[in-house]
Amino acid sequence: MVHQRSHSTSSVSEKGASFSTPQANRKNKVNGSRRMSDSNNVAYSNGKKAFEGNIEKWEPNVYEKELLRRTWSDEFDNLYELGSAIYCYIFDHNPNCKQLFPFISKYQGDEWKESKEFRSQALKFVQTLAQVVKNIYHMERTESFLYTVGHKHVKFADRGFKHEYWDIFQDAMEFALEHRLSLMTDLDDNQKKDAVTVWRTLALYTTVHMRNGFIDGLKGVNRFPPLV
């Protein structure tokens, strides 16, 4: 079972995939602008406009919340496959990220994909996404949660973690989620397109707040200190 899952996720993370935003347009993420490849005035199939403005203050509308809940699954296999696809994409497109995970060096070739350490790491990342989806009706909770996750990543700075690595994490989330949506049979084409749009927004929202926490952590600043 594990071997089959690893094989399927490796096929997802093919190089040369198209991004929702040109790689040269990375400054849009830093200043919090919403990234879309086609237009900043995206409308859903029901005629309602997608979010515009400061992504840090994103509040999904009723339709967006419905799509997120409908297209998310907390089942173990789905979480593992999504997490695996995200990390395989990251390692394929930025092999330097492997140095952040010393356990990889213990294995020959791609044997790390079968390791318990990789399974654990893959699940950790998607559990962060699961927490965001869980709180889409209480968005005031997600900012501090994601900021804290990013803040904790400061401990990986000595392994070479850089704030621009959040870019590849975002691209990986978008690519893996879009692939997953394409396989759903209970959505029509318009719903799939709308779901891709809202998941891209959530991916950006997630990485922007984690990036903010990481950068503040490097400065020794914490906007959301733990309660004593």
From TrEMBL:
Annotated Gene3D superfamilies: Globins
Stretch list, region Disordered: 1-45
Keywords recorded for this protein, A-Z: Heme, Iron, Metal-binding, Oxygen transport, Transport
Bias kind Polar residues: ranges: 7-25
Residue span, Globin domain: 59-192
InterPro entries per the UniProt record, alphabetical: Globin (IPR000971), Globin-like_sf (IPR009050), Globin/Proto (IPR012292), Mb-like_M (IPR044399), Oxidative_stress_globin-like (IPR053341)
Top-level division of the source organism's lineage: Eukaryota
GO MF annotation terms: heme binding; oxygen binding; oxygen carrier activity
Matching PANTHER family: GLOBIN FAMILY PROFILE DOMAIN-CONTAINING PROTEIN (PTHR47768:SF1), GLOBIN RELATED-RELATED (PTHR47768)
Family: Belongs to the globin family.
Protein's recorded name: Globin domain-containing protein
Organism whose genome encodes this protein: Caenorhabditis nigoni
